[in-house]
């Protein structure tokens, strides 16, 4: 199973940053440190996110009043050459040390005038449940005001953007239509266009690479978990997606914002990219991220996908499925205060060690529907919003096979891929 990097505890260190501006971090800066390579590895060849590509955007932000849309995924990596001692007393190698800071701390320490933080679903620190109301507040570490962009305030109001010269967007997306960070991007772009504020997207790799699959969203099913006519898996980075929103004129009244995408370096779409931190509370590792789009359909059914366990989006089950050798009991935990089937024994499948998927898998959804005792209670109305169309539920209920269902997506996917080519960076 793919797992995240295991980072060491925070250490108070003063570190030299190799930047064009030559700044150093203060002695009391807390930075994450990890020795990640030996002398044979070249730091220039490592994948660098848009945030790591700091020489491209620091000059743009200099002497500007900056607002930033970010959360715990907005991190900057530095690579410092260090001595790595070996078991022999006579030999040591040159290696790399990874040093990690939040994008907010990074900008402040480089004397960028950050005015406000704008936080999406799950909040600035990424600790809120899915759909939970996150209130405005103040960041205790920096003292900066935090404006929540969720609930009734998905789009920043003009007064919330007052005094901002440029807005920075740095969030880690996972490549799925119903993952709401791309919906937040839509509203940010719209607000920027309406208030004549340039937007800078610090791009990040799509951990699901170039997978393009699933039904196309139909306009009548537009919601915050699906705002645009795209498939469930869109195969774009967040920066490429921003270019598509602008280019296809999906913003209100066809307006466009002044957009600059800071690209990733040394990145190709087919590369595997493991996320260094959870993008949200219920996506704990790379396996969950890979299975997310396929298992998220269960959110529109009476089947649990593991919320309230330690294997969110890696298992599924319900009290209404036949007894099997695998079972679990959801209980309130971090990211799920009241999970589906709270305290009830659920039977299903454990997919935490299953092979990585390279498409939108329907087999688990079809199997659960087939084996559920009372099929009339399997689907809930939310399923249509997730699917972006009523057709998928109708196809499943009519007994269509996976291949027959997938065949109905072919034309829509072909048309989308033609449009997608216009906005690809990598």
Provide the fold topology.
Blueprint: E1 11-12, E2 30-37, H1 54-61, E3 65-70, E4 75-85, E5 92-102, H2 103-109, E6 113-119, E7 137-138, E8 145-148, E9 166-170, H3 181-194, E10 199-202, E11 212-213, E12 233-234, H4 238-247, E13 259-262, H5 286-295, E14 315-318, E15 327-328, E16 346-350, H6 363-371, H7 382-387, H8 391-397, H9 402-407, H10 410-420
Parallel strand pairs: 3-6, 3-9, 6-8, 9-10, 10-13
Antiparallel strand pairs: 1-2, 2-5, 4-5, 7-8, 11-12, 14-16, 15-16
Helix pairs in contact: 3-4
Word description of this protein:
- The protein is globular, with a radius of gyration of 22 Å.
- Strand 7 and strand 8 form a beta hairpin.
- Residues 1-30, 36-42 and 126-134 have low confidence and may be disordered.
- It has ten helices and 16 strands.
- The longest helix is centred in the middle third of the chain and has 14 residues, at 181-194.
- A seven-stranded mixed sheet has the order 7-8-6-3-9-10-13, sandwiched between helices. Strands 1-2-5-4 form a four-stranded antiparallel sheet.
- It is of the alpha/beta class and 426 residues long.
Distance between the termini: 27 Å
Q: Give the beta-strand count.
A: 16
Helix content: 10-25%
**Main sheet record:** 7 strands, mixed
Could you spell the SSE succession in H and E letters?
A: EEHEEEHEEEEHEEEHEHEEEHHHHH
Mean pLDDT value: 87
Question: How many DSSP H or I helices?
Answer: 10
- Backbone shape: globular
Strand order of the largest sheet: 7-8-6-3-9-10-13
Structural class: alpha/beta
| Structural Rg | 22 Å
Beta-strand portion reads 15-25%
